[in-house]
Design a protein that fits this description.
Layout lengths: L1 H19 L5 H26 L3 H4 L1 E5 L10 E5 H8 L4 E4 L9 E7 L2 E6 L3 H8 L5
Antiparallel strand pairs: 1-2, 3-5, 4-5
Bound molecules: zinc ion.
Length: 135
């Protein structure tokens, strides 16, 4: 999982820089969480490309948790069709059960080993839509 680990450490450096600059408002917290989650979504898009070809055998993809915690390096598994269904909606993310961030997103449903969460209205939704890899 070299890709996901590199992505985590790159974002962690950027986060440290933002904190050094004194960004600490509520908006900035929402923005940072949103940035983390959309980054993990991009990682998963790459992982999906790499998984294509294997899924026909197992129909299960190994993805990274799309929660807002940069220290989270947990993996989730889901079928290709589940992934496509979530990814078709820019406000939906897949996280490990319990990894949703209150106020930024809300629980939608539990599916197998992961939870589907929906971005809250306002800034979290706008960020998720602006960075949606499928639009
Ligand atoms: Zn997580």
């Amino acid at each position: 999982m070299g890709i996901s680990l590199n992505a985590h450490s790159n974002v962690r450096r950027r986060q440290a820089r933002d904190e050094a600059a004194g960004w600490s408002s509520v908006d900035e917290r929402e923005r940072r969480i949103g940035r983390n989650e959309t980054l993990f979504r991009q990682v998963n898009e790459r992982l999906e490309e790499m998984n294509t070809g294997f899924e026909e055998i197992t129909d299960a993809m190994a993805l990274v948790c799309e929660c807002g915690d940069l220290d989270c390096s947990q993996q989730i598994e889901m079928s290709h069709s589940d992934y496509e269904e979530i990814r078709s909606d820019p406000t939906l993310f897949a996280v490990k059960p319990g990894h949703e961030t209150a106020g930024v997103e809300e629980f939608v449903r539990r599916a197998g080993g992961f939870d589907v969460v929906r971005k809250a209205a306002g800034l979290p939704t706008r960020l998720a839509e602006a960075t949606h890899p499928r639009s």
